[in-house]
Sequence to fold (427 residues):
Amino acid sequence: MPQIEQIAETLSSQVFWLLVFFGLTFVLVGLGMVPKILGTVEVRDNQIAGDLAAAQAARDAATGDEEAWRQRENANRSAAQALIGEAKAKAAAANAAKLAETQGKLDMRLAEAEAAIAAARNSAMAEIEGVAADAARDIVARVAGTQIEPAAAEAAVKEVMAHG
Amino acid sequence: MAAEEGKVDPMKQFTIEPLMGSDWQLGDGLNIAFTNSALWMAITAVLVTLFVAGGMKRELVPGRWQMAVETMTGFIDDLLEANVGAAGRKYVPYIFTLFMFILFGNLLGLVPVGLIPGVHAFTFTSHFTVTGVLAIVSFSIVLIVGFWKHGLHFFSLFWPANTPAFLAAPISLIELVSFMVRPFSLALRLFVAMMAGHVLLKVLASFVIAGGGAGAGLGLLVGVPSFILMVAISALEILVAGIQAYVFALLTSLYINDAENLH
Fold:
């Protein structure tokens, strides 16, 4: 096995060159480059974490904005509904008032007309009584040849009419 | 020699050969020749550096390469986060370098560069001198962090919580042994796993060559099944290369957890 056979003559050379090249690699790569590479990775990780946090914050803000918009929209809608209800109620009240006024006018004209009709009928009745009394006196004068008092004739007519 | 006898020496791939500077020495006579092993360590270091440097664009939206590098660093980061906790992040540079160095070393040893004449792949993680140094470095970090953070109180690691006093002596002895064995198990596990796979591949390759050389009948009977097995075991070895690098990094992070979060 050369590892054992040659150990006496090669040990110092092996150890020396290993320390030289391993030490060189350690200083150049291990101490010089590795910390920078790890730093780059860390910077990237931090950047990604920051970006993710910013995106999350933007998302939260958007959700909040949407919620606020929804509340505003709901408030607007209910205000509009209230306005419509009020307008409806006002219109209904105005209608009712107008109807009542018109009804009142109509009732009054009806009452006036009825009163006029009643007055006309009374006066007509009075004239009929007068005509009947005159006719009754004429009939009596022709048939009996006697003159009767107009008052008596009116009374007789009234009696007949009241019974008739 | 191997070609003359028509045999393949499965251990030859682990031989260390000086490429240049065979007489280079540190002050007190220690030889530091630049060997094929050192060459593959250098290639590994360059490739790891290039791979990670390709992911340094630091763009907010990563490209493919940057994504791949960030997956690897994130993998080690998560590993330490899960095993050590928030205090584990300061060990990411070390564990990441360890993991990538072992992973690239393991995988480079499996690249079939031997198809190019004169080029030989070499797996430096199949030498316990290399894995041993890495294990000792990891173990030293555990000891330094443990005594730095907890002082002598770190020895309470060997006394599990709620242990009755009469059991304290034997249990702390067992705990001490299991603690001291850690660097050896760490080093031997990687070394043995890498060496075993490469030896197996070479043995099967020698079957293919010997079977093919012995005629059509034996070639079909031995060579073809061995070759199919080689393909399957190469796939398995790629898996082992990743798993062993992961295990080394995982165990190191678990040991660091002991030192960092003393019970």
